[in-house]
Structure formats: structure tokens, C-alpha cells
Design brief:
Layout: H1 2-10, E1 29-34, E2 58-61, E3 66-68, E4 74-76, E5 82-88, E6 93-104, E7 113-117, E8 123-126, E9 130-137, E10 140-148, E11 158-164, E12 170-181, E13 186-189, E14 223-227, E15 238-242, E16 249-255, E17 257-265, E18 268-273, E19 277-283, E20 290-291, H2 299-305, E21 315-323, E22 337-346
Antiparallel strand pairs: 1-12, 2-5, 3-4, 5-11, 6-10, 6-12, 7-8, 7-11, 9-10, 13-22, 14-15, 15-20, 16-19, 16-21, 17-18, 21-22
Length: about 350
């Protein structure tokens, strides 16, 4: 009877309903597909779909008595199987989409959760944002589950998805995993007083690496971060400053060269050089600006408008500088501005 059931399972294709997440194949995404398994108990099954871009993802079956069926599926003949999908990402995971094909006894999908370890080292469970059947028939289910992690303040770079079943002969037929993670289009540099960069000129060192020189609000120095994709065909780069003076007028500056040791720049240090362009000017809110905003030209388009068209393979360098009318230390009374660290961005086609 067991062999007959396994034969029935072998006659079904892995997925009968095709589903592709909207972000599949976009920059800062990864994909893993599993159709045949070879490790029945407490070992990783790695992707076998040739379209896989995420070779580190794995599917596990954790209960003793696990078997691989003649069709290459996972099951357990003596205990309800316990399946686990594990993965990691280069940066903060924003969205996870899991598709599962199951045969014979139904998988209790209402119990499926994603887990990650929080800052305290304890596991945190997250229920799916959405979960629905693609196929729901006697002995054959296909379901897609989505986790939107973008609003979670923790940085999630590894996770596992627990699929705990209730009965033996709950066969795992196939798995597809799509993950979207945060895009960081460039690398930060120009920390004053570190790695050959000159010290702050007004006896106003930053409170730590990754900050510009301290300001009169004593924030420890302003920061600059970037998210998005530095692609000329699909530019989504956005810069965000932080820890400036609360309402300071702020300029995002672009250069086509870098200054390795930095140069004195008001009360700060500037490592952005060459042909300089003031891309955006904004008033800070709570010591922060984010540019471009809705309705603004994207960074590459604004650069071209200002006379510096960017070609694929070229680098540009960015910093924000802002007004600080209270001059610190022994600096000139004309040094009424300060700056962030810098970001080096390589533009792709």
C-alpha cells in the first residue's frame, strides 16, 4: 500500500500552477528552486533548479524515519515530518515568497511561520502577510506564502521557515523561494581621522566611524546612507542624511572624483572632488533629508540635467553638507557649514 501511494505521488509534476513574484529577477533579489531531494534526515537539500541564483538556500527534514520517494520527494514513514527552509541574504531581507507543493496528507499551512534571531539573540516568529492556495485537491496542494518584512526595524540577514506537519505521508514535492533584500548601491568612506583621512578642523571629532565631524547640536556627526539600484536603466537610488542640525538647509553634492585624504570643508571634511554638482537642496526635518522624493528627477537624470551625464561603469561620489551657523573650536567665523561622510557609487547599465 505504501509503494502504491508513493507511485501516485510520482505521477504528479512539481508545480502545476505557475506563479512568479513581481520582483523575481530584479536587482537585489535571489531565487532558489527545489524539485528533487536526496537527504532524508537532518541534512541540507540544496537547490536543483538550474535557474537558481541562491545556492545557499536549503530544505531540511528533521524527524527520524525520513525517506526519499522514488520521485525524489521528501517524506517520513514513521513520524509526521518536520520540514525547514533556511536562507541568508547579503543585506536586510525585505520580502520573502515561499511556494510549496505537497502530496498525500495535507500540510497544515496555517501553522507555517518564518523565524529569525532578534538583537537579544532570541528567536522571533513572523506569520505570513498573505497565504493562499494555487491548487487545493485531494492529495495535492500548492500554496504561496508571502512575508513582508520591510516594516520590521530589526536587520534580518538570515531566517528559517518552519513547516511542521501532523501526519506521516505528508510529502514535500517541490519548493520555490524568492527573496528581495535591501539594495545598497555604494560603499561609505571618508570618516575623519580614520584610514588616512584628515582630522576634523575645529576640534570637533565624530563620535565614531561612519559619521562626519561633530556639529553645534552635538549629535556626534552627521551620517549619509543610500538605498536603491544604481542602474541607468532603472535608477532607484535614494540618499538619506541623519544627525544634522534639526532644520538645517542641506545640499546633496556629487563629484566625479574622490579625495583620498579629504580636504577641510567648513567645520567638516570633504572627500568628494572633481567636477562638483549640487543635485538637491532641502531643509532638514529632525536633522534628516531624503532625496530624491516623489516628483524629483532621479539621481542620474538630475546629474545629466546639470551637465554631468553618467555612463555605465563610471563612479560618482556623494556627500551632504548643511548649514551650521555656530562655529566650533578655533575655526574661521566663515565656516558656517558642516558635512557628512561620503558614498562611492558605481553606476551600471
Amino acid at each position: 500500500m505504501i509503494s502504491a501511494l508513493l507511485c501516485i505521488a510520482a505521477s504528479l509534476p512539481p508545480f502545476t500552477i505557475g506563479y512568479t513574484p513581481p520582483f523575481h529577477g530584479a536587482p537585489c533579489t535571489q531565487y532558489a528552486g527545489f524539485e528533487s531531494f536526496n537527504t532524508p534526515v537532518n541534512g541540507p537539500n540544496f537547490p536543483d533548479d538550474p535557474a537558481t541564483t541562491d545556492l545557499g538556500a536549503a530544505v531540511w527534514q528533521l524527524m527520524a524515519g525520513g525517506v526519499i520517494t522514488t520521485a525524489g520527494n521528501l517524506d517520513d514513514l514513521t513520524l509526521p515530518p518536520s520540514y525547514r527552509v533556511t536562507d541568508s541574504t547579503p543585506s536586510d531581507a525585505q520580502e520573502v515568497v515561499l511556494q510549496v507543493s505537497g502530496l498525500l496528507n495535507p500540510i497544515p499551512f496555517q501553522l507555517v511561520q518564518l523565524e529569525y534571531f532578534g538583537p537579544s539573540g532570541l528567536p522571533i516568529s513572523v506569520i505570513p502577510t498573505s497565504s493562499y492556495y494555487l491548487v487545493h485537491q485531494m492529495g495535492h496542494d500548492e500554496r504561496v506564502m508571502t512575508w513582508d518584512l520591510s516594516a520590521i526595524p530589526d536587520t534580518i540577514t538570515s531566517f528559517q521557515i518552519e513547516i511542521v506537519t501532523s501526519n506521516t505521508f505528508t510529502t514535500l514535492d517541490a519548493v520555490k523561494l524568492d527573496v528581495r533584500y535591501a539594495c545598497f548601491p555604494g560603499s561609505s568612506f571618508c570618516s575623519p581621522g580614520i584610514a588616512g583621512v584628515i582630522a576634523c578642523p575645529c576640534s570637533n571629532p565624530p563620535s565614531g566611524q561612519g559619521r562626519g565631524c561633530d556639529n553645534s547640536s552635538l549629535t556626534g556627526g552627521a551620517t549619509l546612507d543610500a538605498l536603491g539600484v544604481a542602474s541607468l536603466a532603472a535608477d532607484s537610488v535614494q540618499f538619506t542624511s541623519g544627525a544634522e542640525r534639526p532644520n538645517a538647509t542641506t545640499v546633496l553634492l556629487q563629484g566625479n572624483a574622490s579625495i583620498a585624504s579629504g580636504a577641510v570643508f567648513g567645520q567638516g571634511v570633504r572627500c568628494v572632488g572633481g567636477g562638483l554638482k549640487r543635485l538637491y537642496v532641502r531643509a532638514a526635518v529632525g536633522g534628516s533629508i531624503s532625496v530624491p522624493q516623489a516628483g524629483d528627477p532621479q539621481v542620474s537624470a538630475q546629474s545629466a540635467t546639470l551637465g554631468d551625464p553618467i555612463s555605465a561603469g563610471q563612479q560618482r561620489y556623494y556627500m551632504a553638507y548643511y548649514r551650521d551657523p555656530i562655529v566650533l573650536g578655533a575655526c574661521s567665523a566663515l565656516s558656517t557649514f558642516n558635512g557628512t561622510t561620503a558614498i562611492d557609487v558605481l553606476w551600471t547599465p
